[in-house]
Amino acid sequence: MEESLSLATEESLPILTNHNGARNIQWGKLAAGFYSVFLLWQLVGNCLYVVRVIECSMDKKLESFRCGNVSTFSYSKELELAWYVTRLIQMFFIVIALRKTPSFHGYGPTLGKLKSLPAFWTLVLLLLLGVIRYVILEAWSQSLLSFLLRVSFILSCVLKLAIV
């Protein structure tokens, strides 16, 4: 018996219509275009973040969230925060998509298997130490932007553990 692979055709894609039904936009193409722009921003944001981190760590000997705007480009701190927020959104969607994957058994059973592994508790301890460090640094936060950057670092660490 032969098996065949059927691919989605343009007719089988969901279609978005307005209240008059006159305008049709295919959801697949719209989502692909949006996600392509989103990934392009992630790439550009990552490159700008690397430039910022290198300049802050090499020239000023500071972490990126403690460093002011760099001389290479203006509004670097704001761009770093925007990149981190979009990165958090992407990680959140990955966690949601992982739950909907048929081969994924759920976070509860996975946690049940992981809690008997010493390496998992080492990872959790390292996460906890990192979160405590950022919370202590929050006490000396001088601006709302620095506070938001540290909160995004904390959320990023927690979401990375959920994804891994």
**Poorly predicted ranges (pLDDT <50, ≥5 residues)?**
1-8
Element-by-element helix/strand order: EEHHHHH
Question: Could you say which overall geometry the principal axes of the C-alpha atoms support?
Answer: flat
Task: Please outline the major beta sheet.
Answer: 2 strands, antiparallel
Multimer state: single chain
Give a count of the beta strands, DSSP E runs of length 2 or more. Answer: 2
Please state the CA-atom Rg, rounded to the nearest Å: 21 Å
Q: Number of helical segments?
A: 5
Please estimate the helix content.
Answer: 55-70%
The residue-averaged pLDDT reads 77
Per DSSP, what share of the residues sits in E-state strands of 2 or more residues?
A: under 5%
Number of structurally distinct domains: 1
- With strands numbered from the N-terminus, the spatial order across the biggest sheet is 1-2
Explain what this protein looks like in three dimensions.
The chain is mainly alpha-helical and 164 residues long. It has one domain. It is built from five helices and two strands. A two-stranded antiparallel ribbon has the order 1-2. Helix 4 packs antiparallel against helix 5.
What is this structure, in a nutshell?
The chain has 164 residues and is mainly α. The chain has helices at residues 27-60, 76-99, 107-114, 118-138, 144-163, and strands spanning 15-17, 24-26.
Keywords:
mainly alpha, 2 strands, 164 residues
Write the layout of secondary structure elements.
Blueprint: E1 15-17, E2 24-26, H1 27-60, H2 76-99, H3 107-114, H4 118-138, H5 144-163
